[in-house]
Amino acid sequence: MENLMIPCTSKPPVIIPTKHENLSEFSQTPTKLAFSNTKKTNNPKISDSHLNYLSRNGRLTEAITALDSIAQSGSQVRANTFINLLQACIDFGSLELGRKLHARVHLVKESDPFVETKLVSMYAKCGSFVDARKVFDKMKERNLYAWSAMIGACSRELRWKEVVELFFLMMEDGVLPDEILFPKFLQACANCGDVRTGRLLHSLVIRLGMVCFARVSNSVLAVYAKCGKLSSARRFFENMNERDIVTWNSMILAYCQKGENDEAYGLFYGMWKDGIQPCLVTWNILINSYNQLGQCDVAMGLMKEMEISRIIPDVFTWTSMISGLAQNGRRWQALCLFKEMLLAGIKPNGVTITSAVSACASLRVLNMGREIHSIALKKGIIDNVLVGNSLIDMYAKCGELEAARQVFDKIEERDVYTWNSMVAGYCQAGYCGKAYELFMKMRESDLKPNVITWNTMISGYIQNGDEDRAMDLFQRMEQDGKIRRNTASWNAFIAGYVQLGEIDKAFGVFRQMQSCSVSSNSVTILSILPGCANLVAAKKVKEIHGCVLRRNLEFVLSISNSLIDTYAKSGNILYSRIIFDGMSTRDIISWNSIIGGYVLHGCSDAALDLFNQMRKLGLKPNRGTFLSIILAHGIAGMVDEGKQIFSSISDNYEIIPAVEHYAAMIDVYGRSGRLGEAVEFIEDMPIEPDSSVWTSLLTASRIHRDIALAVLAGERLLDLEPANILINRVMFQIYVLSGKLDDPLKVRKLEKENILRRSLGHSWIEVRNTVHKFVTGDQSKPCADLLYSWVKSIAREVNIHDHHGRFFLEEEEKEETGGVHSEKLTLAFALIGLPYSPRSIRIVKNTRMCSNCHLTAKYISLKFGCEIYLSDRKCFHHFKNGQCSCGDYW
């Protein structure tokens, strides 16, 4: 706009003095002219040509001194000369000299509106919008160029509403916009969402016959597109006589911003039919849009098509892809693409580096993070505050707090996020004292802690077990910090308590939120649900589900997925399936949650059926899916099919099996009694077996009474976890059964490490929102005599005899020496200690259920016609009609 003003294009040609004139002029010009209030002196006359010479060479101070001399001599300067001086101020960005020139505007010979117009431009471009507006408002005669100058100034300052106001003032003055101003007004309407004024401008454009100008037409289209009026935009687009690349890009961008990528893609190929080849901007619009929608594969395909079309991807293209992959959980792929970008010779920008570093932070890959840090230093991008913040976050998450602090200390202009990243780093590492020191320094600085800072400190203290300090900050944030608590402040407490295992306290905070009318959000729900993923909290899950429905959060995918998982783990697989079936959108986590839930409940047929449905829909299974499906084949006794699935992980899906997949295959072999194949499978493993693999083999050898194999598996476990009390207890039993107690070194080692101390089992049951706890052998309960009497009578009915000669490996001592096990006492309390007979009983136990108790629970479920859900350290048991979902394999 500025280049089209009359003062810049219509000024008279500069008069170049002759050599003689220059010599005479310079010979008479003093080296320094001082302003004085004395009488007129016989100073030599200074010509306009000399002033023009000074302005062209940027000698503005001398020009102002020369103007003072002109004032003393009673002379004046031409308007064009003064305009040239103002232009020089614009070129050199000198507001101070511009003000001095403004003070001498009275020296202009004739009143000229173009001088005032140039003053408006000078103030606007030199950074004083207020002065520009003052000059404009005082103008008596405002022509089109004056309006252009003021509107251009507003546009540069992004004062879009003022631009719209100027349009109406301009119309009142009787000045009509031209093909240059119309796009400015339309751009203002688009940016401030004023579609009503946009329609008015559209009608004016038609009446003035300006539609023929491509720039004007494209601006009209942009108004409808940016204001979300896609139908109006599309009608205007279809009626345009001529469409250029800008037209197509505007329409494609409009659809992309609305998430209607299919329509945008259709227009993209419509360009080719119209004879217009997509440019770099077109490709970037589509690629970025697909990445934002999480469709990274489509975006990657477009990038390849782009290269085939001989359009070279620029830094925006690469950054969009890297950022899109990282934000959609494909962080390794994002880092690989970052390396490809460097090999392609594209210099990354701040956003590229930030995205790559953030991916390293999430993956905890310190070495790669350091490499990217080095690249940022070499490319000169390290001063970018976003890069600095991401580096602090990356080093902190990787446990390198010293490196994080070094980056923090080197950032000169820190923002709130810089401080928050460092504070969070200390809190996550457990250094709440250092975090608090930094927190107090921040309070003393110009940047005060915001609500995120306070919440980070609260979360740090509560997660590190310092409840008192967390509560102190929670109460002080409104009083001392003048920061209003938000939902995240409450969420910090809930998440902290859940992490500490203090579920009742977490629920107390959750209920207090409801009573204080604090709106719980998806983070609240996702924070508290993991604490309810057990049988004791079954009623709490329903309470949270009710809150989800009241808050209209049931359509949030992550919440639905979490509810499926939590309901399954709390014993209600039916509700899990109802939620799954009611979901309009499902991702891989949804399928994994419901399949895993069925496997947990021993429902292998349902799990395998869902897996087949998933594959028919074209969904690609991941590691979690395969883990559940291998276990499902084991439950179903389908060994050969399980082997095929295991092989397909790497052969068909190019996924490297993890150690848990190998442990699951041992479970498959073990359940079917094919222990020899299980041992061969372990020997052929390409990775080192861990404790999960040997535990699976030990379980199989226990069930199938293979003492020799139990010794092998047990000793491997003992090598891996020599301090594990439960493993040592089982090993002692193995030595008893195998007759190896004559080895004095092994017995002495067990006694020396005090492994044979009593390991008490604990069981919990919730009745009417109260959790009751029972301990093995505990006789302190008021109704203990009644409970013990009932347990003995049940034992007689079941006719469970001493089984010392059998091959059972238990984590607890036998009831003859350690007392009645906690789960039996809990069952007795549920059946005779309550005023009603429950149809379902839900119990949580801290150790593995023994064979005796397992048989008793099966008998009770048959005799009393109730369902018993019991979750122990090893397995989830659902007893019904005398059978258990584990198939007596746990």
UniProtKB/TrEMBL annotation:
DYW domain location: 809-890
Read off the Gene3D superfamilies from this record.
Tetratricopeptide repeat domain (1.25.40.10)
Write down the superkingdom of origin: Eukaryota
Q: Which keywords has UniProt assigned to this entry?
A: Repeat
Spans of the PPR repeats? 112-142, 143-177, 244-278, 279-313, 314-348, 384-414, 415-449, 450-484, 486-520, 587-621
Q: Which residues cross the membrane?
A: none
Please give the biological process terms from Gene Ontology that the record holds. Answer: RNA modification
* Similarity-based family: Belongs to the PPR family. PCMP-H subfamily.
User: What is this protein identified as?
Assistant: Pentatricopeptide repeat (PPR-like) superfamily protein isoform 1
